[in-house]
Design a protein that fits this description.
With 217 residues, the chain is mainly beta. Helix content is 13%, strand content 40%.
Length: 217
């Protein structure tokens, strides 16, 4: 009797481990940008994994640290019952971690960070990709040492800063105008900023490059 019970428990363990392995493989396929993905099944608690098959015809969804895995369960009546398994995820990725405090509006570069594998499922915003050219960015606000660098923390360094001298132009079918001016606001290519001509008149202009703007108003 004991041998039979042990055999049943061992068989259930093997089946459970095999199914967990299938889920792990599926998660790695669905989330290829991460180094490692761990999971635990939150609900339904009573699901019989040995009767379940991942349903790849339905959409797999992730919301923060939770994932919703579609499966089909073969019931005793030989009917396939569609279920969603709720998984609690632990997601690991190489991220940029600040090596020192960084001030608001300070330009950043790779030397300000170290690359560390971290569990990121609880992050409010996506981390900045390690491959990004972060020397094009500056801190939107103060970044504490040992913080994971997230997209919400940085912004592009302006192509034109307040006080920069720019060449402004306007043209249409009959009028062509150009003059020098000073930037009254900052921005990157494509942004609309205010400029002030030397006679104090204010215009709105779209940034073309680091020193040329096109008058729009």
């Amino acid at each position: 009797m004991k041998i039979l019970l042990l055999h049943i428990l061992f068989t259930a363990l093997v089946i459970g481990n095999n199914y967990n392995s299938n889920i792990s493989q599926y998660l790695n396929e669905q989330l290829p940008d991460f180094k490692k993905v761990n999971f635990s099944i939150v609900s339904p608690k009573s699901v019989k994994l040995d009767l379940c098959v991942i349903d790849k015809t339905r959409k797999f969804k992730v919301n923060g640290s939770y994932a919703y895995l579609p499966v089909e369960m073969n019931t005793n009546e030989n009917e396939n019952r569609k279920l969603l398994l709720t998984l609690k995820l632990e997601i690991y990725k190489d991220v940029l971690v600040a090596s020192r405090p960084i001030k608001k509006n300070e330009n950043i570069n790779i030397n300000d960070f170290r690359i560390v594998e971290k569990e990121i499922s609880a992050l409010r915003f996506a981390p900045v990709e390690v491959s990004n050219k972060i020397d094009l960015y500056r801190a939107k606000f103060k970044i504490s040492a040992n913080s994971i660098l997230q997209n919400s923390m940085v912004e592009r360094i302006p192509d034109i800063m307040v006080g920069d001298r720019v060449e402004a132009f306007f043209n249409n079918n009959s009028v062509n105008i150009s003059f020098s001016a000073s930037a009254r606001s900052e921005g990157i290519v494509g942004d609309i900023i205010k400029i002030k001509r030397d006679d104090k008149r204010i215009f709105k202009a779209r940034i073309v490059n680091y020193n040329i703007v096109k008058i729009i108003e």
